[in-house]
Specification:
Strand order of the largest sheet: 6-7-8-3-9-10
Number of strands: 14
Number of helices: 12
Distance between the termini: 47 Å
Order of helices and strands: EEEHEEHEHHHEHEHEEHHHEHEEHE
Bound molecules: adenosine-5'-diphosphate, magnesium ion
Structural class: alpha/beta
Largest sheet: 6 strands, mixed
Helix content: 25-40%
Radius of gyration: 24 Å
Length: 338
């Protein structure tokens, strides 16, 4: 639905030039949540601003639903831009306007009649969970509430695409979770395509279906979020994965642990996809006459399912251990007996 080809942006000044976006090719599908992760200065903001042409590219094309955004004249561009909403790290609200008037603002610009503007704004206020705050000013709202206004405003013209530039980076962890949940529910409810950029792998893990890693203006790795988490290739990607998974498991420590038990078995359970580890462990405990000891694990939940590894020690009568292992091997979990 969005095709980006050979996209570059070079900032030139008298003395130097910065290649902020360096020859990016990318396809983003309708209805997906696509994440772009990179460190500060990687070119993420420039990249996202090229998508709605808040910046003009030095080279390349951005095609959204067969319309080449980079080639449009001012009038057409204004019309197409209404189909692209955007939210920002620092919300960019109008401080002298109430919540309601912040949201009706983009509808005024689009020439929507007053009555319809208000109806639409109230509907959106409900959608983002701000009922009762219609007449508050931004200064009277928490950070999370401000971002909810930002989201409602971005949705006012029924966009097909929502661009999010570090939308949760100014928020505390709990509020971040709430705003990310809201984005997921909007994505599902409205079928909206979401492109978000962030420097936090946690954000990618929680809501993105696919991800691209950006470094020095280039996309250096991309794929399904789950695949990238499980098999990061570039060292920069490995660093980002470690943000949420911690350092790789210490093989020597696990071997020592495995050898320290005189009875029972140490199992490595590798989770990929649907199965949740909680359900499985409790099924094991209830279904078989064994004791279970969780030794070590790093399991994480993404939009696409659970993945990671869990080391457990199980002990009990040999036939119960065998039955438990047999049971596990019939689930989607890969079992390795150590
Ligand atoms: N308007 C601008 N003029 C000159 N250089 C810029 C401008 N905007 C961004 N840059 C430079 O482009 C690079 C990428 O910046 P940016 O897109 O903001 O990265 P990110 O959002 O990943 O932190 C940086 O080196 C930055 O200094
Ligand atoms: Mg930025």
């Amino acid at each position: 639905m969005i095709t980006i080809q050979n996209l570059s942006k070079v900032y030139k000044s008298k003395h130097n030039q910065v290649v902020a976006v360096d020859d990016i090719d990318l396809k983003i599908h309708k209805g997906e949540i696509f994440g772009v992760i990179g460190y500060s200065g990687a070119g993420k903001s420039t990249f996202i601003r090229l998508i709605n042409r808040l910046e003009d590219p030095t080279q390349g094309d951005v095609v959204i639903n067969d319309k080449n955004i980079t080639k449009l004249k001012t009038g057409q561009l204004r019309k197409e831009r209404q189909k692209i909403g955007m939210i920002f790290q620092h919300f960019n609200l109008l401080w002298s306007r109430t919540v309601l008037k912040n949201i009706t603002f983009s509808l005024e610009i689009a020439g929507v009649p007053r009555k319809q503007r208000k109806e639409k704004a109230l509907e959106l206020i409900d959608l983002v969970g701000l009922k009762g705050r219609e007449n508050h000013y931004p200064s009277q709202l928490s950070g999370g509430q401000k971002q909810r206004v930002g989201i409602a405003r971005a949705l006012a013209n029924d966009p097909e695409v929502l661009l999010c530039d570090e939308a949760t980076s100014a928020l505390d962890p709990k509020t971040t979770e709430d705003i990310l949940d809201l984005l997921v529910s909007i994505n599902k409810k409205l079928g909206l395509t979401i492109i978000l950029i962030t420097h936090e792998m946690h954000v990618i893990k929680k809501i993105c279906h696919r991800v691209a890693v950006m470094d020095s203006g280039k996309i250096v790795e991309q794929g399904d979020a789950l695949d990238v988490f499980m098999h990061p290739k570039q060292s920069i990607t490995k660093h980002f994965v470690q943000q949420v998974m911690g350092p790789p498991q210490d093989q020597a420590l696990i071997d020592t642990l495995a050898n320290s038990f005189e009875t029972g078995k140490v199992l490595r359970l590798h989770f990929v996809g649907e199965t949740t580890n909680q359900a499985l462990i409790s099924q094991l405990a209830k279904g078989f006459d064994i004791d279970i000891n969780i030794l070590q694990g790093n399991i994480t939940q993404t939009q696409e399912g659970t993945y990671g590894a869990l080391f457990v020690h199980i002990d009990g009568p040999q036939n119960e251990i065998d039955k438990a292992i047999h049971f596990l091997s019939n689930t989607s979990v890969e079992v390795e007996v150590r």
